[in-house]
Design a protein that fits this description.
This protein has 6 helices and no strands. By secondary structure, the protein is mainly alpha-helical. It has one domain. Helix 3 runs antiparallel to helix 6. The longest helix is centred in the first third of the chain and has 37 residues. 19% of the residues are buried. The mean pLDDT is 90.
Length: 135
C-alpha cells in the first residue's frame, strides 16, 4: 500500500514539474517575442534574448522529460553552439532558406563569440534556477 502511494506521489510531482516548466516556457516565449517586436536597443535585444533562448529550450525539453536529463543545460549549450557554428558557415543560405525572413530570424545569420557566451550564461541560469526549484 505504501509503495502505491509513493508511486502516485512521484507521478504527481512529475506532473507538477511539467506544469511549472510549461508555464515558464510560455512566459519566456512571450518575453522573447516582445523583445523581438518592441525592443530596439543595444543590450536587451542582442544579449538578453540570447540568454533567454537557452533557458526557453531547457524549459521546453523539461516539459517532456522532467527529471532524467541531468546534463540538459550542457546538451542545450552544445545545440546552441552547433547553431552558432552553422551561422559561421552561413547555413541558412546553404539550406536555401535565405529568402525567408522567418528562417533568417529563427536560425540566425551571423556568428558571434558573444552569442556563445550568452548561451553559456543562459544555461548556467537554468541550471542554478532548476537547483533552486527542485529544493
Amino acid at each position: 500500500m505504501m509503495l502505491k502511494k509513493d508511486g502516485e506521489k512521484m507521478k504527481a510531482n512529475r506532473l507538477n514539474l511539467r506544469i511549472v516548466y510549461a508555464v515558464l516556457f510560455i512566459v519566456i516565449l512571450i518575453v522573447e517575442v516582445l523583445i523581438a517586436l518592441f525592443v530596439k536597443d543595444n543590450f536587451i535585444r542582442p544579449y538578453g534574448g540570447d540568454i533567454l533562448v537557452t533557458v526557453l529550450i531547457c524549459c521546453f525539453v523539461r516539459i517532456f522529460v522532467p527529471k532524467k536529463l541531468n546534463l540538459l543545460p550542457v546538451w542545450v549549450f552544445l545545440f546552441a553552439l552547433a547553431i552558432e557554428i552553422g551561422q559561421y558557415f552561413d547555413y541558412v543560405s546553404l539550406l536555401g532558406l535565405s529568402d525567408s525572413k522567418f528562417f533568417c530570424i529563427v536560425l540566425g545569420t551571423s556568428f558571434s563569440f558573444i552569442d556563445v557566451l550568452c548561451y553559456a550564461i543562459g544555461c548556467v541560469v537554468f541550471f542554478v534556477g532548476e537547483k533552486i526549484l527542485r529544493r
